[in-house]
Amino acid sequence: MVKLGGTPAGLAAKIARGLPNSTIDVATLTNPATLAAGDLTFTASGTVLLEPSTQYWVVVTGTGGTVSSTTASGEDDGGLAGWSVADRFHHRTASSTGSWSRGGSSNGAGRITVNGRENTGTAPSKPAAPTLTARGSHFLTLDWNPPTDLGSATSISDYDLRYFAGASDPSDAADWITEGEEGGLEDPGSLTGLLLFNFQAATAYRVQVRALGDAWSPWSDSLAVTTLTSYDTDYDGLLEISSAAQLNAIRWDYDANGVADGHLPEPQQVAYGQVFPAAGSDQCDDPSTFAGVETCTGYELVADIDLGVDPWNAGSGWDPIGGYEGEFDGKYHTISNLFIDRGEKSNVGLFSNKNTGTTRSLALVDVDVTGKNLVGAVVGSLDADLVNVFASGTVTSATADSSGVGGLVGSVQWNGSISGSLSAVDVVAEAVSGQGSLGGLTGSILGEVSDSYAVGSVAVLGTGATWVGGLAGDVNSLASVTN
């Protein structure tokens, strides 16, 4: 019995399975003789066999009037013994082929759920040896064997799955999410394994499976699993850094896909896993549009980071990150007290070199960086883009020729560019006896610089022929410098 309002017109009703994801028609229902607002009874012609303990939907469509709900007043108020009417009702407009909304009413199609009563067949036993494994932040694999006892059947024709988000089974069986419901799992048919998608990261789940012979088996014991962690909670493709240890660890993820590179020595892979524990390879995939591919493109700061603490300010200090190919977005956060004392080493800065991936929206405050050649607060050698970056402090070259030493960047290479950036770094060459290049923003420019400034001092403490400039020491004739 279904409650209709307004002026019902163009009504059609059926019993179906599989909704809301797909429709498997079971029976067409006959309309009542008179269509009017109120409680209407639709009937089935002949005998309709419903499988036991199975969710069915009564689907009513129309071109006029509204469908609101069943007239059943409670979970088990369904009439005949063995039947129950579920407390879920969905609707959508008559012209829609899209998703259904839970609750309410509409001048379209409404659905209620009913559960069939047991038939006379002997049910098989539970599916055997089920296993559930978290394969990522948003997907699982479920495998099982056919029941060891088929009951009165000669084969298993179908399997059903259901799940619940929680550390223990729900107290109300209606809280399980079953096939056909919004968010329900894919129907495995007669398969004995399935890849399950669209789960939330770092969340505990319970999953059960049952088998259909001449009747449905009992549900298997619950399988418990927790999905892996996603460090891209806003699904923008950038993994989130909130600590100095995590910042240090990106050196072991060259391609920025959220997984330590497999060719690295095991201690480095373990070290990455310690600061990004339980990271899923799919962690940058939005579960609502899951594509099953790695889509991470870099890292971003979600907090200010102070490197003026042990071990980053001890001994030679920070070890410049080399070979990192991903994006790096500071999100307008600050990295403070970067300390590097590596006067014998070239390619020195927060990054030693940057050949791909944009670095943007970052402030480095109170740096104290010492290197040999190609020395800058942000990067020693830049062959990628640097956008909207600020630095303050001191950069020092402790070598005779002091080649490529700048406040932000040591040298801007042919494919490198700096835009919208400011250096308030004092640049110092301690002992210049040969030909070098020093500048307040960058030591030398082969690529492009635009809309960028330097306000720090540039000092040469030794003697010798050196190219020195407030913005840049050496600008190639093919370079571009604007504003």
Folded structure, characterized:
- The protein is mainly beta and about 475 residues long.
- Helices cover about 5% and strands about 40% of the residues.
- The chain contains two helices and 39 strands.
- The strands form seven sheets. Strands 19, 20, 21, 22, 23, 25, 27, 30, 31, 34, 35, 36 and 39 form a 13-stranded parallel beta sheet that branches. Strands 2, 3, 5, 6, 8, 9, 10 and 11 form an eight-stranded antiparallel beta sheet that branches. A five-stranded parallel beta sheet has the order 24-26-29-33-38, with no helix packed on it.
- A hairpin with a 6-residue loop joins strand 2 and strand 3 (about 25-30).
Which runs of at least 5 residues are low in confidence (pLDDT < 50)?
Answer: 71-82, 105-112
Q: Give the overall shape, derived from the CA principal axes.
A: elongated
Task: Report on the biggest sheet.
Answer: 13 strands, parallel
Percentage of residues in helical conformation? under 10%
Termini gap: 76 Å
Provide a quick synopsis of the model.
This protein has 483 residues and is mostly beta strands. The protein contains two helices and 39 strands. A hairpin with a 6-residue loop joins strand 2 and strand 3.
Question: What tags apply to this protein structure?
Answer:
483 residues; eight-stranded antiparallel beta sheet
Describe how the helices and strands are arranged.
Blueprint: E1 2-9, E2 12-17, E3 24-30, E4 38-40, E5 43-44, E6 55-61, E7 64-70, E8 84-85, E9 90-93, E10 101-102, E11 108-115, E12 128-134, E13 140-145, E14 158-165, E15 177-178, E16 193-196, E17 204-212, E18 223-226, E19 238-241, H1 244-249, H2 266-275, E20 298-301, E21 305-306, E22 327-336, E23 339-341, E24 351-354, E25 359-371, E26 379-382, E27 385-397, E28 403-406, E29 409-412, E30 417-419, E31 422-429, E32 437-439, E33 442-445, E34 448-450, E35 453-454, E36 458-460, E37 467-469, E38 472-475, E39 480-482
Parallel strand pairs: 19-20, 20-22, 21-22, 22-25, 23-25, 24-26, 25-27, 26-29, 27-30, 27-31, 28-32, 29-33, 30-34, 31-35, 31-36, 32-37, 33-38, 34-39
Antiparallel strand pairs: 1-4, 1-7, 2-3, 2-6, 3-5, 6-11, 8-11, 9-10, 9-11, 12-13, 13-16, 14-15, 14-17, 17-18
